[in-house]
Design goal:
Largest sheet: 7 strands, mixed
Radius of gyration: 16 Å
Protein name: Class I SAM-dependent methyltransferase
Mean pLDDT: 89
Number of helices: 7
Strand order of the largest sheet: 2-1-3-4-6-5-7
Structural class: alpha/beta
Length: about 210
């Protein structure tokens, strides 16, 4: 989706999703906690200032795509990783400043980046605990990475998919991901989709006004 068009649509998206704000109507303690204390968390983590400085230092070396993600998305990625505490992180898509936030969320985690399938090297037998999949302009790439990584999920795995409603192809793909037999609770934030693979919790799909 064109960034200018998306910006123009923002007020209408927010109004349409208004009733899904701040966890209202959510009865699951797990989902309510995630929405209120992770997705809507507004604490100014000390790491944020460090990450802004690190991003600025690297911007001169990177192309225009390096800082395409919003501050809101990057900070949410940091909080999600910090919440999930994964041992392994896979960052699949155009390499961007979000890589800094993913790594900072769990220092010491095994981090793998891949901008193409040929770069997706996963160690045999090692689960994918956290996947950030961001290349909505290539739904074929997104679908294949999901297929590969979903075969390596465990109960603590969390997948974050960018642009789930940006194109009809991505929205159709998001629906198929939610229906995957391994997927558990999901959250639709419009810009991002979040899938948890903990099958001990009752599966439900939530819409969140992010």
């Amino acid at each position: 989706m064109n960034r200018i068009l998306l910006t123009l649509k923002r007020p209408f998206i927010w109004l349409y999703r208004f009733r899904h704000r701040c966890g209202y109507g959510v009865h699951s303690p797990f989902a309510f906690n995630l929405i209120t204390h992770v997705i809507y968390e507004s604490t100014a983590y000390y790491k944020y200032e460090e990450l802004v400085k690190a991003q600025k230092q690297l911007e001169l070396e990177k192309d225009k795509h390096w800082k395409y993600e919003s501050k809101k998305v990057k900070r949410l990625l940091f909080r999600l990783v910090n919440y999930a505490q994964p041992e392994t992180i896979v960052d699949a898509g155009t390499l961007a400043a979000s890589a800094l936030y993913l790594k900072a969320g769990k220092e010491g985690a095994d981090y793998t980046s891949a901008s193409d399938l040929s770069e997706l090297f996963l160690e045999s037998g090692v689960p994918v605990d956290f996947l950030y999949l961001h290349d909505y302009r290539r739904p074929g790439f997104v679908e294949e990475v999901f297929r590969i990584c979903a075969a390596r999920t465990g109960g603590k795995s969390v997948f974050v998919i960018e642009g789930i409603r940006y194109t009809p192809q991505m929205f159709a793909l998001w629906k198929r991901m939610k229906q995957d037999g391994r997927a558990g609770i999901t959250f639709d934030l419009y810009d991002l989709g979040i899938i948890f693979f903990d099958k001990t919790k009752i599966k439900q799909d939530y819409i969140v006004n992010f």
